[in-house]
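Hypothesis: this fold can be encoded by more than one sequence.
Test: take the structure tokens below, design a sequence, compare later.
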């Protein structure tokens, strides 16, 4: 199928999906931190949050629940900074009550995802990160099919934790990528060890190396590991910029390295 790069994605340079076959592995956290790392590298970044049943990124970026405005081109994304270098669109902005459950069948979810892909006026972006729900279901197919109509999708980053139960689910996500022709940009092992807040020693409480081993077995690029870090947890809970607040931490180095590898990969496919 020929891809017509137009509409609201015309000025977006690269599109990257964040995937995992399992919930609770930290997709939204890593999406947020990668976006912040890319912004600090001087890039204009957008986040499309299509985790319709668990939209957590607005809280992680401390943007509250602003009113979503419309312009001639469609919905205007919510900007997290005055320079408009980080844009966000999420169903969290459209819910009257943040505690309201999204109890929708597939067709309604698919229709909203289609709107998110085509009707958000992103403007100029270097990278658009798409945070997805766990699994390989309607939402993923809807995102991919709608994006491919308008823009080349550079690929996907797969998130896992070290345990075999997680890597097994991510293996199915790899199969999904192969079936849909989606390039795998790499695998990240999240929660890879625990960083002690007192001595900074890292203990492997969830085992270690599952993500790297999975990458070797499947012929995928291993992007690196990110430890469990109480400082990162606190930053996420309070909506603070971890990258800016703790630039000397090992976790910062890990996230920044993954972001730089991602940039190199999409700029030199």
């Amino acid at each position: 199928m020929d891809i017509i790069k137009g509409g609201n994605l015309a000025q977006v340079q690269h599109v990257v999906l964040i995937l995992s076959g399992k919930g609770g592995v930290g997709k939204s956290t890593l999406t947020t931190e990668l976006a912040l790392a890319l912004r600090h590298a001087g890039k204009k970044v957008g986040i499309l949050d299509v985790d319709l049943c668990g939209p957590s990124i607005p809280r992680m970026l401390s943007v509250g629940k602003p009113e979503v405005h419309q312009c001639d081109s469609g919905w205007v994304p919510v900007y997290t900074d005055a320079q408009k270098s980080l844009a966000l669109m999420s169903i969290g902005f459209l819910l009257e009550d943040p505690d309201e459950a999204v109890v929708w069948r597939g067709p309604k979810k698919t229709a909203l995802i289609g709107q998110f892909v085509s009707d958000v006026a992103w403007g100029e972006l270097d990278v658009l990160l798409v945070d997805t729900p766990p699994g390989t279901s309607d939402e993923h197919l809807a995102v991919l099919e709608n994006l491919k109509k308008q823009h080349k999708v550079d690929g996907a980053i797969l998130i896992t934790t070290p345990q075999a139960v997680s890597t097994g689910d991510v293996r199915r996500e790899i199969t999904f990528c192969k079936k849909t022709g989606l390039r795998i940009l790499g695998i990240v092992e999240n929660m890879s060890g625990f960083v002690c807040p007192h001595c900074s020693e890292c203990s492997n409480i969830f085992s270690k190396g599952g993500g790297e081993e999975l990458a070797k077995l499947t012929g995928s690029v291993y992007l690196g590991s990110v430890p469990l870090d109480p400082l990162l947890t606190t930053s996420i809970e309070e909506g603070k910029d971890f990258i800016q607040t703790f630039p000397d931490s090992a976790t910062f180095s890990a996230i920044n390295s993954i972001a730089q590898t991602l940039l190199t990969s999409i700029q030199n496919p």
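Residues 235 and 242 are 6 Å apart (CA to CA). The mean pLDDT is 88.
Hypothesis status: open.
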